[in-house]
# Entry
Amino acid sequence: MANKKITQLTASSFNLAAIDLVEGSINNGAGVYTSKKLTGQQVFDGTIVSTPYISAYSTTNQTFGAGAAPVTFDGTGFSNFITLHTTDELITSQAGFYQLDFTATILNNGGNANYNMVFWLQINGINVADSSKFMNAPTNGHHISFGTSWLVQMGVSDFVQIICRVGKPEFELITESAFSGVLTPSAQVIMKRIG
# Structure
């Protein structure tokens, strides 16, 4: 089926081979279309779709007090079709299924360790069912790393927030750079569309 237009394909052509050529039309936004040749391999590799992704991080310590509050981010390393609208809202410009990989460095700055910390998601300000991930805080004066992942479905212009609630106000998210000379963010999220 190589080098054939879609209208020339037979009904039995169920698969696109790597050597097959596909022609696509690209709209410049003003209704003017230009043709582009793509191979079956390029289509398979996803070169005709720009994948939405973002890497956002926080370069400052974060405290939460007694209530629940969003985890904040003050920088982005890379982003494409996902934006950090405010310091705590990640906004998508394409609908789909998204994977969020989240890490944080947690310090117990003087509290008893027999209390929990919990992280969960909100989409458009509404709690996401079954997204809660809780942990026991480290012992007094110690810190640990925490990592988790979520899979969510989002629409165009939806925003997602990572919410934190601490059992005692002495639990906080901290940065560190003295040991390695490279900043460890207090929190980081890598979000990408996977389908």
